[in-house]
Design brief:
Domain KIB1-4 beta-propeller: 51-280
Strand order of the largest sheet: 21-20-22-23-24
Radius of gyration: 20 Å
Distance between the termini: 38 Å
Number of helices: 5
InterPro entries: Gal_Oxase/kelch_b-propeller, KIB1-4_b-propeller
Protein name: F-box protein At4g00893-like
Length: 332
């Protein structure tokens, strides 16, 4: 059983009781993220379990007048509204880690790993007419370190577009060119990867000037990118040997992408979800999130499509599911 992929493991487990026990004992299942929504002017957040479609309220008095900037590994990077204060916050453990005062109004933020790690690096990027302003810091630092790099980079502003992969941060520009920033050497460079030829970017006659979305995703050292264009099907590409290859639905192999304005997550070993894109948009009745099924070639829930202007509104994001002790409290 240990040699089987997840799909075959599940099929084999239905054979008999002994096979089921053997299959479950070696089955590796990833945890899927939950959707977190930040109501305006409130100290509480809403948590949606996208599989069970259950909504929970989590009170967070530590976050008055705060805005989220980025999320990964169960941590939030937060900033105080109309302030220069920034900090990390874990909504489940309530741990708060301060950062140096941030004097620049950056367009995008990201961080490399949990702030409890010695290797954690925070990056802020500001896009100017012919320059890119890049600042970095880390937990325990006393100030941000800033560089200005000559570079014309027209970015995407409507979805997550900075990820950390291996030893550097990556970012797309609006023409489909991939750039990287190496924090140790403080080097900003063009990666050499082929310019991505997504029709949503170049075919204005067919797809018009409607709102486009791009989301970079990292998974085990590999880079993926997802493009959206209103009610068109999402397009997924994978970087292979410096070339972007479109992943057709039959080649997705139970791949699930969770997309938000601030971050994107990718999961491959979810037995109850497969070949779907989950957006950080609540449905009309707030019982589920909006998704796209590659197997069914449609958005869900289909009847509400005309209500949405943004698939990824800036008030919500994906975050690791709560640990069992927090979940027990939420269910009381």
């Amino acid at each position: 059983m240990s040699r089987l992929i997840l799909k075959d493991n599940i099929h084999a487990s239905a054979t008999c009781t002994s096979w089921c026990k053997a299959a479950v004992s070696v089955r590796v299942v990833e945890k899927y993220p939950w959707l977190m929504f930040f109501p305006k002017g409130d100290n509480s957040v809403e948590l949606l379990d996208p599989l069970q479609r259950k909504l929970y309220i989590l009170n967070l008095p530590e976050l008055p007048k705060s805005t989220v900037c980025y999320s990964r590994d169960g941590w939030l990077l937060m900033g105080k509204a109309k302030s220069i204060d920034m900090f990390f916050f874990n909504p489940y453990s309530r741990e708060l880690i301060t950062l140096p005062e941030c004097w620049y109004a950056f367009d995008e933020f990201a961080f490399s790993c949990p702030p409890t790690s010695d290797n954690c690096v925070v990056v802020g990027i500001r896009f100017l007419a012919e320059f890119v302003v890049i600042s970095t810091c880390h937990p325990g630092a006393t100030e941000w370190k800033t560089d200005t790099v000559p570079c014309y980079l027209r970015p995407f502003y409507n979805q997550s577009n900075i990820v950390y992969c291996k030893d550097r941060f990556y970012c797309f520009n609006a023409r489909g060119t991939l750039f990287s920033f190496h924090p140790s050497s403080r080097t900003w460079s063009y990666t050499g990867a082929d310019q991505i030829k997504c029709p949503y970017l170049y075919d204005r006659e067919k797809y018009g000037w409607s709102e486009k979305g791009v989301s970079l995703v990292e998974k085990k050292g590999e880079l993926f990118v997802l493009f959206t264009s209103r009610n068109e099907k999402p397009l997924v590409y994978k970087l292979v040997s410096g070339k972007w290859e479109e992943m057709i639905p039959t080649a997705l192999d139970s791949l699930n992408i969770f997309v938000s304005y601030y971050n994107s997550e990718l999961r491959t070993k979810l037995p109850w979800m497969k070949n779907d894109v989950y957006f950080s948009r609540f449905s009309y009745r707030r019982q589920r999130c909006v998704s796209y099924s590659f197997d069914e070639s449609r958005y869900n829930p289909d009847e509400e499509w005309q209500r949405w202007r943004e698939l990824c509104p800036p008030q919500s994001l994906w975050i690791d599911s709560p640990p069992q002790n927090v979940l027990d409290l939420l269910m009381k």
